[in-house]
Amino acid sequence: LVRQGIGMKTSKGVYNQSFSVSYDYPVHFTRDVFSPANPSLKNAVCRLNENRRHRVMVFVDAGVEEATPGLVVRINRYFRKHSDAMLLETEPELVPGGEKAKNNRDAAEKVMESIADHRLCRQSCVIAVGGGSALDIIGLAASLVHRGLRLIRIPTTVLSQDDSGVGVKNGIDAYGMKNFAGTFAPPFAVVIDFDFLKTLDHDYWVGGIAEAFKVAIIKDAGFFRYLLKNAGKLARRDEKAIEQVVRRSAIIHLDHIRTNGDPFEFGSARPLDFGHWCAHKLEILSGYEIGHGQAVAIGIALDSYYAFRRWLLTKRELDAILVAMKTVGLPIYSSLLERKSTDGMPKVIRGLKEFQEHLGGRLTITLPDGIGRKVEIHEIKPQFVLDGIRFLKTWNIT
Ligand SMILES: NC(=O)c1ccc[n+]([C@@H]2O[C@H](COP(=O)([O-])OP(=O)(O)OC[C@H]3O[C@@H](n4cnc5c(N)ncnc54)[C@H](O)[C@@H]3O)[C@@H](O)[C@H]2O)c1
Ligand SMILES: [Zn+2]
């Protein structure tokens, strides 16, 4: 759908082109997505009522396949059952999962090659089943082929369900920088199946909750209270509690993308990256040994301390954030924060510059302004960061 814009001729011979494109996509919440009786995925593929048989390819995170015996058989069976509406072009293909698979372009190229081999057209569907890394790889490939095929994401980790999988970005790491090569490409649909979370490693299970803390702290005080109250349950993998967290966090992310006026991040501010300038640097410094969610939790802790020093959070609010994250099982400190560059400053501070380079324009960091509200600042005092690192190293629930 393209809304007609207004082109204006000016006297200096410049014709100003202007149009906007609107996007919409459903996000289904379900369980047992590949049960033949579950209509979610079929409805997602057929959502435009085009009255034709849709050509489909499925790519599956190899880690998910390994953890879910019989998954490929079930996917095949699902498409056989619905073969009047969808044509599965070939057996589901495996894609390597995990952050390391994003470090080079091999996996994305292989997905593109495979789509080329099967001659999918722009109106065919690529279905991506996996964690945030596999979804980023498959999504990037799908957005490049013919300048963009229809992508349906089936996220399988807490992080990809409550954050990345419902968003509009793809990307892989390159030249030592996270997400250096990527695209903005909204999905055709998203299907969130809570059952996948059962087999997830505990670190990833907990890690994904960091992104929920991120949006709760800057956007929704009620959600933060829920996280604080249910932190113990979440640490014990309570299914009802994680379902609530995934739903609320995914919807806050979706609302933000829809209403903040900058879904493709043309401006310098990026509120959903609260805590991320430090997180991205920590991930790289650790050689990706620290997971994204754990790095985000440390970044949130450091930026929350900073907000406290700027009188934006009270000590009580800061402590509540740290207590809740610790109780869930998230880290708030890493010795990597103290690793020094030749100038004697912690290396992590270099992350600020890289963050600014990635976004362009003026340095803009989002901080909480009380819990549930946010503010943007344009300068970070290194001394407060140093104090924050020392504070977090010895912080204890008192
Ligand atoms: N595109 C975006 O907007 C965006 C936003 C946030 C994060 N991300 C990216 O997401 C990535 C992190 O994603 P993640 O936390 O989902 O982890 P992940 O995708 O790296 O997966 C972690 C591991 O768990 C395995 N796995 C996935 N689902 C499983 C399941 N259900 N059962 C058992 N094992 C399973 C994977 O194979 C992998 O080994 C990072 O690269 C981050 O940059 C992208
Ligand atoms: Zn993140």
Give the helices and strands, then pairings.
Elements lengths: L1 E2 L4 E2 L5 E2 L3 E2 L5 E4 L9 H6 L8 E8 H6 L3 H11 L4 E3 L4 E3 L10 H12 L7 E6 L1 H13 L5 E6 L2 H5 L6 E6 L2 E8 L4 E5 L8 H18 L1 H9 L1 H5 L3 H21 L16 H10 L6 H18 L5 H14 L21 H10 L5 E4 L5 E4 L4 H13 L4
Parallel strand pairs: 5-13, 6-7, 6-8, 6-9, 9-10, 10-13
Antiparallel strand pairs: 1-4, 2-3, 11-12, 14-15
Helix pairs in contact: 4-5, 7-8, 7-10, 7-12, 11-12, 11-14, 12-13, 12-15
The chain binds nicotinamide-adenine-dinucleotide and zinc ion.
The site of nicotinamide-adenine-dinucleotide (NAD) has 32 residues, from α2, α5, α6, β11 and α7.
Walk me through the structure:
The strands form five sheets. Strands 5, 6, 7, 8, 9, 10 and 13 form a seven-stranded parallel sheet that branches. The chain has helices at 40-45, 62-67, 71-81, 106-117, 132-144, 158-162, 202-219, 221-229, 231-235, 239-259, 276-285, 292-309, 315-328, 350-359, 382-394; strands spanning 2-3, 8-9, 15-16, 20-21, 27-30, 54-61, 86-88, 93-95, 125-130, 150-155, 169-174, 177-184, 189-193, 365-368, 374-377. The chain is globular. By secondary structure, it is of the alpha/beta class. The longest helix is centred in the middle third of the chain and has 21 residues, at 239-259. Helix 7 (202-219) runs antiparallel to helix 8. The chain is built from 15 helices and 15 strands.
